[in-house]
């Protein structure tokens, strides 16, 4: 191989290395740190919900960046229903749904507190003919925002596997399935299939645990991460 060819090849390799370095140092790495250091990375949240009595509830395991309208639209497209408010009428309706296997896709969910206030939005996806078993998630609006200025919503997604008595208080409640990471994955999967997400990333949640218990005394295990999805903007 001639000296001229070797010089040309070295020049090409040097140019490729420089281009790769520039892309990594000035595009990919800053993008990573922007995600890592954006406002909601500042852990001023206790990544755990609580019952009105102050008992630790379901851990925060999911987040969305978007407006309220975009969050509601995303769940509608993904085939999830907005849960009804808890009233005497809806409490009777959910009881009849469970006892008589009647469909109630908008059945209410109980109130949990995060940073001192009850959930702002809640959604569910029934499994079977009653409100006995369902995928469901609660969301709380935070004062943090994504890079595009839209708000961050933090949520707790769990699977209701059946109705029973709370192990802690004896009250009638839904019992959750222990694998809350699987429920987080199911929800993100539905939103991905519905093509309403721009991207996803992770932030630190409660941390790994194999012996967690929620407000009803139900055991759960988790890797402790919070998956955050950035929603597509509506026109």
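-> sequence recovered:
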């Amino acid at each position: 191989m001639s000296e001229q060819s070797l010089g040309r090849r070295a020049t090409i390799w040097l140019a490729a290395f420089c281009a790769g370095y520039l892309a990594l140092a000035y595009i990919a790495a800053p993008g990573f740190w922007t995600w890592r250091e954006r406002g909601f990375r500042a852990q001023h949240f206790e990544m755990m919900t609580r019952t009105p009595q102050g008992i630790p509830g379901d851990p925060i395991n999911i987040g969305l960046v978007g407006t309220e309208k975009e969050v509601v639209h995303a769940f509608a497209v993904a085939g999830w229903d907005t849960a009804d408010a808890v009233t005497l009428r809806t409490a009777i309706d959910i009881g009849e749904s469970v006892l008589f296997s009647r469909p109630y896709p908008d059945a209410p969910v109980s109130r949990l507190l995060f940073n001192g206030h009850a959930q702002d939005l809640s959604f569910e996806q029934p499994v079977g003919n009653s409100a006995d078993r369902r995928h469901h998630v609660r969301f709380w609006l935070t004062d943090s925002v994504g890079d595009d200025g839209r708000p961050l919503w933090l949520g707790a997604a769990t699977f209701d596997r059946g109705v029973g008595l709370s192990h802690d208080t004896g009250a009638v409640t839904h019992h959750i399935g222990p694998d809350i990471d699987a429920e987080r994955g199911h929800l993100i999967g539905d939103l991905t299939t519905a093509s309403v997400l721009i991207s996803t990333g992770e932030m630190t949640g409660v941390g790994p645990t194999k012996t967690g218990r929620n407000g009803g005394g139900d055991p759960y295990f988790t890797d402790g991460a919070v998956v955050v999805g950035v929603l597509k903007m509506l026109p």
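The longest strand covers residues 151-165.
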